[in-house]
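Fold these two proteins, one after the other.
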Amino acid sequence: MVTIENLTFDYRRSQKKLFDDFSLSIEKGKVYGLLGKNGVGKSTLLYLMTGLLMPQNGKISFNQSNVAKRLPCTLQDMYIVPEEFDLPSMPLRKYVKCNESFYPRFSLEDLEKYLQCFELNMDVNLGALSMGQKKKVYMSFALATNTSLLVMDEPTNGLDIPAKSQFRKFIALGMNEDKTIIISTHQVRDIDNLLEHVIIMDHSKVLLNEPIFNICQKLLFVETSSDKIAEDALFVSPSIQGNSTILPNTENEESAINLELLFNAMLSDTEKLKGVFNN
């Protein structure tokens, strides 16, 4: 669905290229998690992917169309929810009327359904909402556009604990085989049960680009107090139980993925972890 080829990009005041010969492919019909440290370019990549920024070199294609051309057929089939945004002070119904025509597959019925996930309805006035409530409304509208590509930058920031649980239900309700959702976040525990594919990036390098299924086939995530298990681990991090460990999954065992642990492991010893997947 999305192909990034030999991308080069930097901001004018920067002394270093943010992306230099960066390439990546995104498949259709999956929920992706985009992970990386602060400043590696996650948000910038989302803006480039949706045509809000233009690459200096290279090409980004969406359904085989060059995103930089900003063709109507491309823009009407993608939507971005940025980390920071504002909404006009008007009734939600008026906001919908002003914007729905830009998205041919927008569904008012879907919008009402997604709002219910957050215990909201169509009668709200955007100017009277808190920032957290505005985010819920904006994300609901974004999902109701039914675009093939939806990208979300730190969508759970500003949400309280119940709302984060509602968010997971909301994404699961709106996902289907025709949609691709990319979620960039540092709050990995908010989304770990949602993801089907994980991308870990570090500036111009893709450290990991694997389906969750493959990760759990190759790696075993274990909480243990055993020093012997820790000695055999690919990566160890202290925890309340003793140690959080990543082991080679040699016996095809099942374990719940620990995205935070995986992320730290990839940054700590990239080549060791890459070797597991290459083999």
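Now the second one:
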Amino acid sequence: MTVEDWPRVRAQVAERTDRVLADLRADWGTTRTVDTLEFGPRSFDPDEPPATVEDQLERIGGIASVIVFYTATREETVLVYNPGGFWEPPGGVVERDQTPADAARAEAREETGLDVELTDLLYTGRIEFQYANGASVPLPLAQFVGHRVDGSLEIEREGSDHPGVTRATGLFDAATLPEDAREHDEIRRLLADTTD
């Protein structure tokens, strides 16, 4: 790829990101957005961005996660323990030809062993995915809410060298929800909604 190619590829990916986010908001009736988050560079990515939109989407097409409740009554949430040392809702990279909703369900299944029904889209946003050479690209971010419909809790069994492998899964109610959990305030609010 030449230096001149990247602005064109970046612009095409940005247009796709805008379409994906507009479709999500229309499909779910969600207007809430969050500020753009920076993500990367990841140690296993090349230093320079790819030469095509397809290659970018093959590497990473966005990020999606789901706040999972063990039952529809929202009494307990399911969190995974991240290699970074904190609890968070299951989630990960949107892979090529996946929608953010597909990715959220797939990541929940991979990381927790649970089949999840998505019931809400909490918010959307963008991640600015960084490469080591300083190039970046905007990609969609989606935070869903859902509950278990099948499956049993288990720990992801990928090799220990996998960069995102789940180290533990846990069930937490309002009293035991870790203070430093990602999406803590959102989860607490959603847990509290069932008692109002």
